[in-house]
Design goal:
Arc Repressor Mutant, subunit A; 6-stranded parallel β-sheet; 12 strands; alpha/beta; Rossmann fold; 6-stranded mixed β-sheet; single chain
Length: about 400
């Protein structure tokens, strides 16, 4: 058993009030699961207030700190003076930033988030304009997301309309909640349609959707909306599922542990603060950005997707997810335009490919393996059901 002197006493300052915060802290626990020489303490930000909070239960100063929420000025100033290895996660502090040793930072890649959101919207339809709605609290990350979003929309030939307008100091005064919602309604009313709108995060996306509803503007056919965070609690607040860029918060927590480990292993390291950017982990496709395309175009997209993925064990759910519309609408349009079901079209495409391979001399075993059927018997059953005869009868 390791002695106390061999252990690293680590403090993590975290709020666990929201899903993203809990997911973030889960990443810390995941990465620390195999570190038997680390002893972890966790405290909420409201308990990280004074110099005594830099010491553990035994009165000994912590060996390292992971800080996801800043403490009071007093404790932050003392922390900067101590030299305790510290990892800042999505926060900054000028006192710690002035140190040239034992500090690292982990950031959400806000530019990546803006780009991912823009690409998703551009894939869903054609627009007359783009829009961006800031965090009402005017956080820096909102501006970083806007800059990347606007750049991608500009490449697509779209101007980006921004709310609130922060182009000069006189327009930067904070709105009251009532003013924010009233002016947001006017903004969406005057936005050229159809429009592709990114909101700084899901709560703001819900505000945009509710503003559209109040103005009688249909979402997503006239205004498509995407948020950030994938916080499903806001879906009920606007009456639809919100498409959202998913933050990789668990990786943020894991990376924070790795950065602290680096500081432990390199106690004499000096230089610029080491910064790590963690990109998003994908998109949740909700109703707020469902494809606004014709029935024939929707079916063409589905057929193309099935053809490209015929070597995989594709399901109807996979195709519908790619279309980004409801199951009911996808099945209706497929039946109307193509005269069959999505499931039957998947089977037809895969069986035709299988027959081409058999005719070209491949064995059943080779076809089963290359096309990822669960077994030869499974393949035989589908083949007979589809063609009405066995492979042996076809060869006779």
């Amino acid at each position: 058993m390791k002695s106390r002197k061999q252990q690293r006493n680590v403090l993590a300052v975290y709020s666990l009030d929201t899903y993203t915060c809990r997911d973030h802290f889960t990443g810390v626990l995941d990465e620390m699961s195999n570190k038997s020489d680390w002893r972890l303490s966790m405290t909420p930000p409201e308990s990280f207030r004074s110099e005594r909070d830099l010491k553990g239960r035994d009165g000994v100063p912590y060996d390292g700190i992971i800080l996801s929420v800043p403490g009071t000025d007093a404790v932050m100033e003392k922390l900067a003076a101590t030299g305790i290895p510290t990892v800042l996660v999505n926060i900054t502090d000028k006192r710690l930033a002035s140190r040239d040793d034992a500090v690292a930072t982990v950031w959400t890649d806000n530019a990546d988030i803006g780009r991912v959101a823009a690409h998703h919207l551009l894939e869903r339809g054609e627009y007359a304009a783009a829009g961006y709605v800031h965090d009402p609290m005017e956080e820096f990350y909102s501006t970083e997301r806007l800059m990347a979003f606007r750049a991608e929309m500009k490449k697509a030939g779209l101007d980006t309309h921004v709310f609130p307008d922060r182009t000069n100091a006189s327009k930067r005064a904070p709105f009251s909640p009532a003013d924010f919602h009233r002016k947001l309604r006017a903004w969406v009313r005057n936005l050229p349609k159809p429009a592709a709108v990114m909101a700084s995060y899901d709560m703001t996306a819900a505000d945009v959707i509710n503003a559209c509803k109040a103005e009688g503007i249909p979402v997503p056919s006239s205004v498509s909306v995407i948020g950030v965070d994938y916080d499903v609690s806001f879906h009920a607040k606007c009456g639809m599922s919100i498409s959202s860029v998913i933050l990789n918060m668990r990786m943020m927590g894991r990376q924070a542990v790795r950065e602290l480990e680096f500081l432990f292993l390199h106690p004499k390291w000096k230089g610029r603060i080491h910064e790590v950017l963690v990109p998003s982990s994908g998109i949740f496709v909700g109703e707020s950005t469902s494809r606004s395309i014709s029935a024939s175009r929707l079916v063409d997209v589905a057929l193309d997707y099935i053809a490209k993925n015929r070597m995989s064990p594709l399901s109807s759910a996979d195709v519908i997810s790619h279309l980004g519309c409801s199951r009911q609408l996808a099945n209706l349009r497929f039946s109307q335009v193509h005269g069959t079901t999505i499931g039957k079209e998947i089977e037809r495409e895969r069986m035709e490919e299988a027959r081409r391979r058999l005719d070209a001399g491949e064995s059943v075993h080779e076809v089963v393996k290359s096309m990822q059927f669960t077994s030869a018997n499974h393949f035989y059953r589908i083949y007979k059901r589809h063609f009405g005869h066995t492979i042996r009868q076809a060869d006779a």
